[in-house]
Every structure is written in C-alpha cells, then in structure tokens.
C-alpha cells in the first residue's frame, strides 16, 4: 500500500513583526497577552495538518487543559480572533473552519521552499483579486479559447491554477489588464514546458525502439 503523502508542516514561519500587526495589538488589548498563546497553539495545530482545522466544541477545553487558562477565556479569545480577522469569519460561521488567507499563503510558500507538492483547494481563500473580472471578461475569454485551442473547462481550470500560483509566489498585479497579460505569459511558459517534456519523452521512446529493432548487421562495423 503506498504511503499517504504528508500534508502538514514540521515548522512554520513566525513573523518578527507579529506584534506590529494591528489585529494582534487589538487582540492583546481586548483579551490580554494570554490570547497570543491561544493563537500560537491554534496555528501549530493548523500547520501540523495543513492550512485549516475544523472547529470542535471540545477545542476550548483541550486548549485550556494544555495552557492552563479558563475554558471560557479560550472561547472568548477565539471569538475575538475571528471578529478581528485573524481567522476568516465567513469560514468560521458558515463552515466551522479556522483558516485565513495569510495562513494559506504561508502554507503554499513553505511547501514551495521545501519542494513539496500540494495545493489549497478545500476552503480556499486565495483567488486573485482580479480573477472574477477575468472570468467575466467574455471577449477576452473567447480570444484565449480561440488562440490557444482551449475548452471552457480547461481555461477555467488554468485560471484557478494560475490564481493559486500567484498567491504562492506573492505575485501582485496593478490592474485586471496586467493580470490578463501575466496569465497569458504564464500559460505560454507552462505550455512550452509541457511540449518540451513530451518531445523529450518521444525521443527517448524512439531511441529505445531503435535499440530493440537492431540486428546483427548493425554491429558489423567497428566502433
């Protein structure tokens, strides 16, 4: 049985300017410095398994037992983190999931640094701010499909893949037009890489075929 691919991290970057973040400063003001320990504990759980965690009603008790804080305080601290935006409020209220755009971006950057494969497909918050504009640009989409012989489904998948790549590499765009140009150049590059890989594979197969079909006559001449 193949071994299940590891999704979590053994460690994660801890920003040195954490206490300059206005959200963190408000958290300390409203819930005291103890709330930072709760926040750090949650981040450890999240990154250990990937980039999000499901909410569990037993979680405040588990954290209180580990850190020695009152269970009620832990619950209030987490609620405050959600209201301040340290965790995405929509995901928490609607999906009972603790995650954030920054968490997902750091997760992908760390995977890239470790040269590990992975993505943020479930509960993703990483769509490019220009992605919706691009998906609704009818004329531009039609031109892309025509120029590069892409189906609607393929183009949609490519746009979503590109959006996640931009988040992972912290690529910013000045406008939707700039994003469109970048997507087209990005697609040309990865498409060329695929063609080169396919050509290399074909050449390897041809060489292998020539070797398999060689006869004794081919080896009469000296080397």
What does this structure look like?
It contains ten helices and two strands; from the N terminus they run H-H-E-H-H-H-E-H-H-H-H-H. It has a two-stranded antiparallel ribbon with strand order 1-2. It folds into two domains: 87 residues; 82 residues. With 223 residues, it is mainly α. The protein is elongated, with a radius of gyration of 25 Å. The two termini are 47 Å apart.
| Number of distinct beta strands | 2
Instruction: Report the sheet-strand fraction.
Output: under 5%
* Biggest sheet: strand arrangement: 1-2
- Contiguous helical run count: 10
Q: Can you give the mean pLDDT?
A: 85
Whole-Å distance between the termini? Answer: 47 Å
Q: Write down the domain tally.
A: 2
Overall SS class: mainly alpha
Order of helices and strands: HHEHHHEHHHHH
Q: How helical, in percent, are the residues?
A: 55-70%
What is the radius of gyration computed over CA atoms, rounded to a whole number of angstroms? 25 Å
User: Any low-confidence stretches, pLDDT <50, length ≥5?
Assistant: none
Overall geometry: elongated
Question: How would you characterize the largest beta sheet?
Answer: 2 strands, antiparallel
């Amino acid at each position: 049985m193949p071994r299940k691919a590891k999704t979590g991290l053994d460690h994660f970057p801890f920003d040195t300017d954490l206490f300059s973040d206005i959200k963190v400063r408000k958290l300390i003001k409203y819930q005291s410095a103890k709330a930072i320990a709760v926040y750090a504990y949650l981040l450890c759980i999240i990154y250990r398994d990937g980039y999000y965690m499901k909410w569990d009603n037993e979680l405040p008790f588990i954290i209180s037992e580990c850190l020695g804080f009152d269970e009620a305080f832990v619950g209030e601290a987490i609620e405050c983190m959600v209201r301040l935006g340290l965790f995405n409020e929509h995901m928490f209220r609607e999906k009972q999931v603790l995650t954030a755009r920054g968490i997902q971006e750091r997760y992908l950057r760390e995977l890239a640094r470790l040269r590990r494969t992975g993505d943020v497909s479930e509960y993703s918050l990483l769509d490019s701010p220009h992605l919706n504009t691009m998906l609704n640009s009818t004329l531009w989409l039609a031109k892309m499909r025509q120029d590069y012989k892409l189906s609607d489904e393929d183009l949609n998948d490519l746009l979503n893949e590109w959006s996640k790549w931009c988040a992972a590499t912290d690529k910013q765009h000045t406008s939707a037009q700039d994003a469109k140009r970048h997507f087209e150049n990005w697609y040309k590059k990865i498409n060329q890489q695929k063609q080169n890989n396919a050509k290399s594979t074909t050449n390897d197969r041809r060489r292998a075929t020539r070797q398999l079909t060689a006869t004794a006559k081919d080896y009469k001449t000296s080397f």
